[in-house]
Each structure stands twice: as C-alpha cells, then as structure tokens.
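Researcher: Please predict.
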Amino acid sequence: MSISSLTLALSLLIACNGGKDDDTGTGDGGAGDGGTDDGGMTDGGTGDGGTGDGGTTGDGGAAESARVRVLHGSPDAPAVDIWVAGSGSAAVTGLAFGEVTGFLDLPAGSYDFQVKVSPSTASDEPVFSTGPLELSEGVEVTALAAGLVGSSDSADSFRVLPLVENWTASEADSFRVRIVHAGADAPPVALDVGNDGSPELTDFGLFGDTEAVAPGGISLPADTDLQIGVWAGDPLGRVTAFTIPALPEGTEVLVVAGGLLGRGGHEANGFQLIAVPGEGSSLSIGQNPKVYALHGSSDAPSVDIFAGESKLVEDASFGDLAGPVQVPPGSYTLDFFGTSTSDDRPDGAPAASLDTGSLAAGQTYLAMANGFLGGAPEFQLLALADGFDRDDSENVRVRVVHGSPDAPTVEVGPVVSGQVSSLGAFAFGQDSGAEGLSIGTGPLTVGLALEGTTAPVVRFDLDLTGFDGARVFAIASGALLTSGAAGFRLLIVDTTTEPWAVIPVFPN
C-alpha cells in the first residue's frame, strides 16, 4: 500500500460511526461525523469521553488518533461521496472541486474507504477504493486529491498528495504560506512573490510543493495584499498573477494552484488559487483581471491610455486592439491622451477620462472606448466580461454588440432567403449576452435590419469554416451616417486564443 493511498484513507475517515447519517452531532461520549456544509464537512468534535462508535476509549479523550482533512483539487472530477466499505450510508456527501473538509481526530485502526460519484447508493460501484488500511497515531495531514480523473498519463493522472502539516512559527508582522502546483494542464512555472519581475522559485513542476525548498512555510508580510506572479516558458514570461488578500500576523495558509489553465478564468474549474487556512473553509482566489482595450470611437484620433502614471496602451487608432493588461481587482480611471513617443504621463489634462467600473478577479474584459469624442452620444467606455460558454465546441459562439453611436436599433441575424432571421434587436450599447449565441460554421451572410423589420439594410459575408469552438465578439462599429468619422463595419474580436485578435469586416 502506497503512502499516497494511506494518506487518502486518513483524509477520508470521517468519524466512521457505524453507518450513521452524516448530519449526526456528538453524543454521550461519542463523536459526530460532522456532516457536510455546502459540499464540505465540518468537524463534529468529540464528546465527554472521546469517540464512541469509532472505537476509542472514554474518560481520557481520543487515544492514538490522527488529525486529517481532505481537499478536492481534481478539476475534472465531479462531486464525490465517501463510503466506508460495508456501511449502509455515505460518511460524506457532495464534496466538490475546491472544497475542503474540517480537521478530524480519527481513531487508529483498519478501514476500507470508497469514493463514489455523488449522489450515490450502497450498490453503486466506487471509482476509487483504498483497500484495507491501518491508520497510525500522531500524523496531521491535508490530503490533496489532484490530477485528472480522465487521464491515463502517469504525468497528470489522478492521485493523492500527502501534505503533512509542519509549520514553523511565524515571525513578527508575518504569516506563512505553503504552495502546491496542482494545475493539471499547466507547464512547470516560476513563482514571483510580489509580482515585481524577479521570480524567486523557478522550474516548479506539476505536483511540486514549496515544502521541499522551504520547510515550515515561506514567511511573507502580514496585513497587506500580496501579489503572486506566475511565469512559464523559455525564456520565462509572465503567464498570470494573483492577489492574495491581506492576512493577519501568524496565519498559516496552504495555497494550491489548481484548476485548468486552458479554461476561462471565470469558469468554476479555471486556473485559480485555492487558499486553505489552518482551520476553516477554503477560499478560491481568481486570477487578476485581464483587460483588452479596443479603440472603437470613430471620430477620436490615435491615443495613449494611462492609469495614473502607468502607460497601458500606446498609439491605438480606431479599430486597434491592445493588451492584455493585467491589474489587481478594483476600479480604475483611464486617461486618454494624444499619442506621444514618451512613456511618461503628459502634463496637462487628458482629452478624456473614463471609469472602468469594478474589475473582478478571474475575469477577462473587453474595454471598448466608444461614442463620439466631439458629439453625442458622448465618448464612453463599455467594459464587457468574457463569459462565453466553452462547452459548445462544435459551433461558434458570438456575442453581438451594438457599438455604432449613430446607428438606430437594429435586428441582427443570418440572412435566410433574403430576409434577416433575427437573433435579437439591439440599441447602441446593448449586446446579446455573456454566454454568446450559438451559430454553425461555414459560409454565412449576416444582415442588419431596422427594428421590427426583416429586410436587410446592411449585409456582411463571413466564412466561419474551420472556426469550430471559436468565441468572438461581433461589434457593429464606426459611423453609419456621420461624416468625418470612420465608416460602419464589424469588428470581430476573436477570444479563442491569447492574445485576442481583432478582424475588421466591411459591408458588402
């Protein structure tokens, strides 16, 4: 029996109390199994005489016990139930990705634990069994279920990582962190504490653990937000960054880099940090928001865009897409200046200043400067979060955006038999929704008709052959009627790969 399997068994032993339901509390001299809370478990605690049915003695507390918990960190595994072989009910139900159980004091003894897809019954076959295991005394472990259930490759397949708690006492004004790389589709990475461009830990491979190089945890400053940069590649380049919220002095926190790098940051199993304190529930920390800036104001000149003293975008003209720029979560004021060759913020007032609104962790935004700089509707910023449905892999998902400031409300859709088969009517600033509209691949003519009509007034020919799985913004942009401004067109922003790309499509 491997150490990994033994650790899994330790972590899955949830006060084996003779098949009682998992919502039982402590009894006279007995321990409840804690039950579940939103898919996770809470520690049932022990009664006056230690555990009852679990087999430990009374009057002296629990004898020969281990303290264990389990963290579900397998991004392609469903919620699971944990069974003790031969029992009539599950000890734990509905433990989902990113959730952690509470620590439990467990009696020494022999146990056989089974993992089943939730919801499950006693007759369902387990997807994983530990076999008979002897549990020894004194160990305190977080058992991390990691890797991919659907993989047969030994490099990234499902496993349990035994993370023995071994914290060193924190220094004054500091806390301690232990980081584990469990991003199953992520390459070896480098970690940059402070996100200042100088990674401290390089070649940090899948299932790597900082305990190997910094036993007892890494000491970091308390009571301040902390930036963590993640780098990869050869040569190294920054892949993403995270903001760990301010933690009080003396905190001990296990941080698992988990999820799938290939999924959207807004998705439940996208690449994220799972922060697990010494006690209590886990916390998902999304990647710092990424922002792509699209110059969509048809009468505005080329611009540089600043946030405070930092130049974010340089020499962007109408139709240009710049980015991504990654910033900590929060709201920002973007200042627009005429293009210059200097990286320094110009003296004097900007031509315009626009507020991004709140940018949330885990999100990627298309921030589009829109409207007229010298007319109505006035110059404005439209921030659209990437919320595309990524599971519709055979089709193209299109988010239609009305970004033409002098165009009326229009019906938009494929042209079928000479008429617009409307997907919806949109006024300036409106869009078709974050998940995108599902359309097939191949040649397609898209038409715009006046609201309430079907006769196309503008047509665009698109060839979507080979674009299976693409996720795009289709932005009606430019001026339809205003002279002296860039003309009407579609700006297709393809989000399928990073960096995003923009393709202009002009009317027939």
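Model: The chain has a mean pLDDT of 85.
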